[in-house]
Design brief:
Layout lengths: L2 H25 L9 H19 L5 H24 L1 H8 L3 E5 L2 E2 L1 H7 L3 H9 L9 E6 L5 E5 L22 E5 L2 E2 L1 H6 L4 H10 L7 E6 L5 E5 L3 H10 L1
Antiparallel strand pairs: 1-2, 1-3, 3-4, 5-6, 5-7, 7-8
Helix pairs in contact: 1-2, 1-3, 2-3, 3-4
């Protein structure tokens, strides 16, 4: 490939990448397993258009950009209509379907969803449920995920059930990740940079040498120091 052709390919690749990234940002961020049917279709079409535009030099860039942004616009329009109209949402995404009720598996629902009992049991095991009789209510959501409510007697005991008094604390969150200080998390737990410096000094490390520091609003924390490449290689050698 000659110089001008290579430069054109690099330019087209960067341009298409930025446009696809912008389109996906417009459509919103979801995990792949959480995509609704129309979102999955849009994602597949956009990826195909991008690959065609990059690989086919004879295809003008605009010939791919126009349908790319049109698909993103249709997805945005569909999201707005789904938000405003339950009928349109049901039309595009379907409805949740109950597959287990009071421990009884609804075989008709499984047939409608084209799910086997093996698929259902696998999804239950993914939620640490091995006996469908323990399930009070299970539904297949419109994105394909399984939501489960256990029978009351099968629910794990909670502190409230045991009538135990507890002290409410915030969740443990990161303060430093790979030497980068998360200022908002520090302030959220009532701490500041001075506390961080004292903590680093107490552990004889610099803040930039901290790989991970997590904690909450109490004085309890966990600090992990970065390992040098030399020490890491020596450990690997000893192993």
């Amino acid at each position: 490939m000659e110089g001008p052709a290579l430069k054109l390919l690099i330019f087209r690749t960067i341009l298409i990448y930025l446009c696809v990234l912008f389109s996906m940002r417009l459509m919103g961020k979801r995990q792949l397993g959480e995509l609704q049917p129309e979102e999955l279709v849009s994602t597949i079409l956009i990826s195909n258009l991008a690959s065609i535009s990059i690989e086919s030099e004879e295809v003008p860039v605009t010939a791919s950009l126009i349908p790319l942004f049109l698909i993103a616009a249709l997805e945005l329009l569909g999201s707005v209509l789904s938000f405003r109209s339950q009928w349109f949402f049901n039309l595009m995404s379907g409805r949740p379907k109950t597959v287990i009720l009071d421990g009884q598996i609804d075989q008709n629902a499984l047939r409608m969803l084209r799910l086997t009992v093996t698929d259902l049991m696998e999804a239950l095991r993914g939620k640490d449920i091995f006996d469908p009789r323990d399930v009070s209510y299970a539904v297949i959501e419109t994105n394909g995920n399984l939501s489960v409510a256990l029978r009351p007697e099968r629910e794990p005991a909670r502190l409230a059930d045991l009538q135990l008094k507890t002290t409410q604390t915030n969740a443990t969150i990161p303060f430093v990740l790979d030497g980068q200080v998360l200022e908002d998390n520090l302030h959220w737990c009532g701490k500041n940079h001075a506390w961080l410096e004292r903590t680093a000094e107490a552990n004889t490390v610099l803040i930039s040498e901290i790989l991970l520091l997590v904690g909450n609003e109490t004085e309890d924390y966990f600090l992990l120091k970065k390992e040098s490449r030399h020490s890491g290689s020596s450990r690997k050698k000893d192993a």
